[in-house]
Protein 1
Amino acid sequence: MSINKNIAISDSGFLFNPSSGESFSVNQTGTEILNMIKEGKSDNEICEYFLSKYDTNANTFDKDLQDFKEMISQYQLTDNDKA
């Protein structure tokens, strides 16, 4: 999965999709995940980072990461969404 290169992501978690004109807000964790995906980090790299930084466990974080990735895909923020 990769974030569409046209998606603008601010440090405060504001996302703008110029293709659709839609904007979204995510929290700090969401912003960190989006930036790591944009950098090409794997799910394992993202998980290791969050497990070392936050009080969570691998099963919980992995489920949350997959849910988040599904959500951003549904909002057509990823390159994988193009038909």
Protein 2
Amino acid sequence: MTHRYLESIGSGCIVLGHAPVELVELMGFNPVVEVDWSAPADQALEILADSQKWQPHVDRALQRLSEVGDWGVRVGTIRATLEETGLLSSSLR
């Protein structure tokens, strides 16, 4: 998973493409509108023509990102992992 997914979701964008497994695991659902490779341009035009239909999906993804993806949460997870593995220096605790 690249950071661009988190940036896009955090910006309130409709993300059209394919979600990496790690993103789905982090979010607990697929926040990406899976692209229809048989007609991607038509799909994009349909989304643009009725973007309000997708607003609940965007809102859900943004809310979930604030729960699992902001830096406060991420630093806590990194710190806990370092402590569990014994890699965090006692001087930093």
Protein 3
Amino acid sequence: MRHFRQSGRRTGVTFSLLTALILALVSVTASPGQAADRDRVRAFLTVTGFDVALEAIKLSAEDAPAMLGIRAQDFGLSWTRLAGEVFDVALMQEMGVDILERTLSDAALAHAAGFYASDLGQRLVQAENASHLADRSVKRKSGEEMIADLMVSDPERVAIFDRMMRAIGSAEMTLKSANEVQIRFLMAAAAAGIVELKLDEKGLRALQAESAEESLAEIRKSGLRGAAVTYDGISNEDLAAYAEALEQPLMREVYELMDAVQFEIMANRYEAVAMRLRGLDPGQEL
């Protein structure tokens, strides 16, 4: 579902399973003020592909040591084992279910599930699932080449990508959330004695603010690159229909919540990494 981020092994769900999931999602009358039950949330994750988006958080594990000025390779097998335990896929997905069970309304669930359970929705989910788990360096290089070509050959398609991103506030939300993840991770690492920070939290946030404009521009470029690769097999007409669906108020609500859940889990896992790193690496100045 998070199609502007990170070929995968997921190929969608079978017809019989999809049918069962749809029935589970739409058989209960939507109530705006009622939170979704746990079984329907699990079905929602699968139909929308958000289960794979949460799984993809594990790919960011390699970024954690770099934030502290160290390399994951320096830890050898110890890092591999630690990352596998902290970024456990089943654990992260259960965390997502826990949060959504309390916060996702039936109305929002039914609206989003109704779209993603459609033929177009499932084709989009299949493309997004593969993109979430793709090699990031390969995806970046391919995306750069594709966007450069599209700017000349099909500017309308690039405009649709931009419309999709703006519909869900992708760049702004990503920057805000990424900054929060970084702050929480650095503060947790400092508290654990892994690093010695030269700046306090206020100073770190001021530093982030100074580079906000540049960071937003890079996030937007990254989003366009990712969209070009992810939706390579989807027509402009279908993507325009997707953009229109994303612009609906309930879909915006769902995406805002999905972003919040995804980054909260990421921040939580980074904090857990900071605590675990204490036994693997001596403190150093950052």
Protein 4
Amino acid sequence: MPRPADRWRKRTFVRTPGGKTVMRFKDKKSSEHTCGLCEKELHGVPNGKKNSEVLAMAKTEKRPTRIFGGVLCSGCTTRIIEEAAMVKTKQKELSAVSFSEKKFVEMALGKIGG
């Protein structure tokens, strides 16, 4: 009988050269990371690797080292930084920014000194 922790894992049955059938467990792989706004796949982050492989990677291999790296795609990041610059130069008010983008604009203002 499998351990209680193994009861929910995906399993395969493999026939050994001696003729026995052995149960083996499949390792889970990390899912595709998506953008926080538009749900596109993020580039520069490990997709489809085993969780143990991702944990063994260095921090710089896990996500880009730019603002909102590993959270937003490049298009959304550009849009957020432009919105933050407009708010900082008072061309636009923070209340005029869309609700879904507001928290990211506030974070960007904190990082660019607004």
